[in-house]
Amino acid sequence: MRDGTGLIVDDEPQIRRVVKNALEGEVARVVEAATGSEGIDLAAAEKPSVIVLDLGLPDMPGIEVCREIRKWSTAPILILSARHADQEKALLLDAGADDYITKPFSTLELTARIRAHLRRSQNAQASLGPPQPLALGDLAVDLAARTVRRDGEPVHLTPIEWELLRTLLTQAGRTLTHRQLFNAVWGRSFGDPQQYLRVHVANLRRKIEQDAVRPRLILTEPGVGYRLELPR
Amino acid sequence: MPRTLPGWLGPWHRPLPRWLLWIAILAAVTAALVRVRGDLDPAHLTLIYLLVVLGGSASGGRPLGFVLACASFLLIDYYLQTPYGTLAIAKGPDWLVLVAFLATATVATQLLARAEAGAQAARRHAAEIDTLAAERVRLIAEAEHAEALRQADRLKDALLASVSHDLRTPLTTIKALAHDIARGGDERAAVIEQQADRLNHMVADLLDMSRLNAGGLTMEPEINAAEDLVGAAIQQVSGALHGRELRTDLAWSEPVLVGRFDFVHSLRILVNLIENALKYSPAETPVDIGVARQAEWLALSVADRGPGVAPSERERIFAPFYRPAGVSPDVGGAGLGLAIARRLAEAQGGTLVYAERPGGGSVFTLRLPAAALPEEEIGALDAGRSL
User: Fold this and answer.
1) pLDDT of A101-155, one tens digit each?
2) How close is the nearest chain A Cα to the Cα of B249, in Å?
3) Whole-prediction pTM
4) Do A106 and B179 touch (CB under 8 A)?
5) A188: which residues sit within 8 A by CB, 6+ positions away?
6) Which of A196, A197, A217, A221 is the best residue to mutate to test the B interface, defined by the most B CB atoms within 10 Å of its own CB?
7) Scanning every residue of chain B, which has its alpha carbon at the shortest distance from the alpha carbon of A222?
8) ipTM exceeds 0.90, yes or no
9) Cα separation of A230 and A168, whole Å?
10) Is B380 in Cβ contact with A193 (below 8 Å)?
């Protein structure tokens, strides 16, 4: 896989070193920026295939850097955060970030996340959307025919459950915030039914997971949203 | 504002004695004037009565003034103007004197009453201004206090953010480098990584405790499914299970149990309870997680087969920096876990309690406000339309 460029935006040289170690196995070249504005310039000049961005930058808020880069780049953006607030994670994902990782993180975890995002973005470039029909363990989902089968038996989903599954599946591997799921399933208007999003997810899990309290497909990102993991 | 009177005047300040006093004065004045009525000019007589009317109305207000004016009019006419002993008037100008007296007494009474009303209003305004001034002083003091608190809060938040960032950045480097070295086979590096994790845990606990104390942790209660919370907790502890069995007791045939609680903080409580249960119970025994609806509560329980908690310790375990007797300080965190957990439960209207487990062990029960699904929502969930 070793092609493409990785960009690290962080003012701490030690953290840049750790992230560089993690990136080097996944991309051919790593470039580093110590400030937000330098990061934006490098992102424009180098067109990296993955960006690791620290939130606590000296010259501008990390979320602004993320918004700016997201205007013209589709490269996965991973946020490094030492912050103690989960609300901020949701804000970051809403601002266009693909993932976040809280300090202190393990190199293994960082590498795994970088690899997953690189693979997802390469898949997205190769084909628009996942292959049809999809086999998720014992579950077969046909997005075109709008059918779900488990061990060959049809699974009955409510329209909301179907929309949830479709939305999570088309962006598999990516954490979707509650807001992003609301918008995808109910449209942009906000109202009462949306507060039951988590109840719909629980019901969907009962229908498609083997064990709803040990889900393998739809994973909870506490305080942020949900992520669908495709089985390896 | 009530006027203060000398003690001996006290009773005369009440309406009835005051009226009696002035009627007595009027009678006394009349009796005195009857004796000298031949020597005095009618105009002089009316002036004396006018003084009585003015005195009465100043003291008893408009009604007393009017009564005294009318009574004086009749008394002057009857006793002091010729012919005496009748209400008839002998000379034309005497009428003029009487009418002038009545008019003057009435107008004077009226003016006095107005002046008194004005004075009363002024006294009321003065009192209101006094109250407002005191209120203003209090509000200014409160605003200054609130501003000082806000400033202290901002400072504290900045300090917490800075401590959090400054401590975690070196921890990240230590952990990552130790991890790299451990991969080379050096076991000591694994210990460094483990201790970095422990330190991070303690920093997080201390930060949370100080935020809880300062009221700086915000709660975001939302409708959440119990099994989502249990699932997230299991997901979070799965890395530290090392083969331990975690059993869940959920009734799949029943509708999803829901509550209105803050997911992140409730998850923190549940994970803490599960980690404690794993830590303080024998490796071969399972840890049981139960979910039930109990009246207005959603009850989540974590039960183990550990040694349990002695009756004398059952409340102390929720105190900050508690450490069970005989447990080495090298094990675990800062002893803040259960204290934070209980505070987090209470901050969202819930409770966290300990109970002895029948057959041995401990049961910690987290109760959170339950929520009911509205009819139409249950309808939408149950519709199960085929796609």
Assistant:
1) 888 888 888 898 899 888 888 776 665 555 567 888 888 998 888 889 988 899 9
2) 10
3) 0.69
4) yes
5) none
6) A196
7) B264
8) no
9) 10
10) yes
